[in-house]
Structures are given as C-alpha cells and as structure tokens.
Design brief:
With 189 residues, the protein is an alpha+beta fold. It has two domains: 115 residues, Jelly Rolls (Sandwich), CATH 2.60.120.10; 55 residues. The strands form two sheets. A four-stranded antiparallel beta sheet has the order 1-8-3-6. Strands 2-7-4-5 form a four-stranded antiparallel beta sheet. A hairpin with a 5-residue loop joins β4 and β5. α4 crosses α5 and α8 packs across α9. The longest helix is centred in the middle third of the chain and has 17 residues. It is globular. The model has no long low-confidence stretch (mean pLDDT 96). It comes from Chitinophaga eiseniae. It holds the Pfam family cNMP_binding. This is Crp/Fnr family transcriptional regulator. InterPro entries: cNMP-bd_dom, cNMP-bd_dom_sf, RmlC-like_jellyroll.
Length: 189
C-alpha cells in the first residue's frame, strides 16, 4: 500500500484523514490472466491500482482487429475513465495480460470523498489534467503523424520493461502498425 500512497501523493499531498478515508474503501484483488476488469458494453465501477502485473485497454474495430489503446503496468491506475464519468457503457475492454494483483476502489465512493476532502479533490483534478489532457494529446498526434519507428522508440522509452512481457502483435496493435512492420522496425534498429 506504501507504493500506492507514494504514487497518488505525487499529484497532490493528502492529509492523514484523507488517506484514512480513501484507505477504508480500498481492497486487494487478483485478476487471472485474460480476466477482465471492464468488459466492452459494461458500465464500469472500479478503479484499479496495479501492484503487480499488467492490463491492456482495447476495443475491437469493425473489421475485427483488436486495437490496443493503452497498457497499465505496475503503479498505473487502470480504469475506463470516460465511461465512469458519464456512467455509460465502456467502449473498451480492460483485460489482464498476466496474473495481476491490484488495489481496487469504487469510483462513486471515491468521488464522494472528493466532496468531503479538498486535498482529494485537488489530487483528482491534477490526475485528470496529467493523464487525460497533457499526456493524451501528444499521443493522439503521434499516432496520426509520427512514423512507426518513432512511435516504437517512444514506446520503449515510456515502457522500458514491457517489450519482453508483451507479444509482438500486442505491441504492433498499440503502435498502430502490423506485426510485420514491427519486425522490420526492430531489424532496422
């Protein structure tokens, strides 16, 4: 749990009272490989802090291709945030790629705490600013305008431990290229 507190307080410091209140709604859970945290079409309720393991967030395109939008390795918070905020069915599936141990909490309970504890509200706002605005826009631009090679290089920098934990087709899907293109990029490096 210490790693969790270290991670979240990077966004904003928390009082002891806030930590206690948040800690009271957190439980530990393990997801087996291929088990889903959120299924496409389900209204998501949980946020999961990854203690050990790995999730992917993906959707299935109309042509049947699986498109991976993001990975959630250790110390990441996994959730279908847009669907939770709108209380609507998720357009994504979040699935464990390995046996994954998490700390989970119900989003609605957390949101109630943000109305009671201003420091938690500030933490939540900063989290959204960083992960849903500051990080997201460059990723969207990169996917549209950067080469597969530059996206692969950025992937290796952002996730230095994931290359050996993922299958080639999973990395290729995340990068928006084919596995064959990824093989050529790797051979050229």
């Amino acid at each position: 749990m210490n790693n969790f507190w270290e991670k979240v307080t990077r966004y904003h410091p928390l009082s002891d009272e806030s930590r206690q209140a948040w800690g009271n709604i957190i439980t530990s859970r393990t997801y087996k490989r291929h088990e889903t945290l959120v299924a496409e079409g389900q209204v998501p309720r949980l946020v999961a802090y990854v203690v050990k393991g790995l999730f992917s967030q993906y959707y299935t395109a109309p042509n049947g291709d699986v498109v991976i939008k993001r990975f959630f390795p250790e110390t990441f918070l996994a959730a279908s945030v847009s669907a939770m905020l709108t209380q609507s069915p998720s357009q994504f599936t979040i699935k464990a790629l390995e046996n994954t141990t998490v700390l989970v909490y119900h989003f609605d309970e957390f949101k109630k705490l943000t109305t009671l504890y201003p420091d938690m509200a500030a933490l939540y706002i900063r989290y959204l600013e960083i992960h849903w605005v500051i990080e997201k826009e460059p990723q969207e631009i990169s996917l549209r305008y950067d080469t597969g090679k530059s996206r692969y290089t950025a992937f290796l920098q952002q996730f230095p431990t994931l290359e050996h934990r993922l299958k080639q087709h999973e990395i290729a899907s995340y990068l928006g290229i084919t596995p064959t293109q990824l093989s050529r990029i790797r051979a050229g490096l």
